[in-house]
Amino acid sequence: MKKILVLSTGDVNGAYEAMYKVAHIFKNMGHEVVMCVKSKTKTDDFIKPYIHIQHSPATKISSLTEKILRRIKSKFTNLQSEAAAKKKLTTDSKYSFLSKDEIAENINVDSLLKSVGFVPDYIFTGMTIGFLNSTDLLNIHKATQSKIYNITVDMNHFTGGCHFSWGCEGYMNSCDHCPAIPDESQKHVAKDNLEKKYQNSKHASFQIIAGSGLTLEQAKKSRIYRDQKVIYNINSLIDTQLLNDKNKSIAKSIFSLEEDNFYILTGAQNMDDPRKGFKYLIEALELLDQQLPEELKKKINLLVVSHSINKEFDRVTFKKQKIDYIKDYRLLSLLYQATDVFVNSSIEDSGPMMVSEALACGTPVVGFDTGILTNMVINDYNGYKAAMKDTQQLAEGIKKILELNKNEYAVFSKNAVQQVQEFSSYEYAKEIFTKILEIK
Q: Where does the Glycosyl transferase family domain lie (predicted)?
């Protein structure tokens, strides 16, 4: 039995939920597990919030001295002017440049270990923005000698600060011409961050685990992790006890959907996020509207799961319905099973998890060739991949699923489930984690 620490800023939604699943899998494997977070929401006992220890006056003086020394060191290593250093960093929001300072120390290691209650053998991290950075991880490693594995819920573990690169390849070398930072006098921040991440990684022998086919390929090319001999890919993490196709034959009736209608499911927390590419889905649906005969168009329904609907969806001529964002996985599973195809129009995404969730429920997926689609969706097997931003191909993929007869669709559905069982299930993840824990 190993002592395993999972680090994440939070424990609900998206990237944080992924790390919650990681913790659960290790617990089910029989290990002693603590998920330490900055903000605890769930009630699970194994989730513990980080609590900073209030030091004694003598210790405070020592800590203050260390802080002053760090600031002096930072000042001398920063080649930029004092005015530029004080200026607030301005970034292009689409890159989600959130990792702004890899030099700062954000937590106290003694406080962390006291919060956790043990000295970990292994540490697994996901999204830790606003909680800790690579320098904090190095400090934890120095104190514990634990093996550290970073999981790519997005690209941040190997970039100079962005979570999504939008085609920029700076992370492969030095990030010295960062497009996420418009101000020339501030571009050094990305370069400095990447260099610090690189040095911290080398000193503590960080390892990377991919969370999707896309981030696997990106990690292999990254300056920080391209020399890692084996990079495992856990392809989202799907609990097939909750998300499966066991009720697919009756799911439509549960939602009072017409058996002879064709239901397209799509969704995201924020439909205005340009990464999600909903304008391309709208264009694809407009092309589909032009190509299909009237009798087929009448049977098409678009179901959108989101907190709010983008006004652009008024352009969609097919029947459409908004569904409030679903947090209950049992209900979400039934919705996936009730629909005929899940369309993911993301153009810059490390996931999303909805792709693997839909496949697990026997629902074919159509989307652009990025994120989790890269290796989880196979043409003419369990869905279709379109070239990036090619709305004609996206429309054709939806049309191909629409035109499948009952038997052909059943094969696609079975293949979708099989793909998740083999490459995205908890059982698959257990195999990967077992291999990692056996590495000497």
A: 273-417
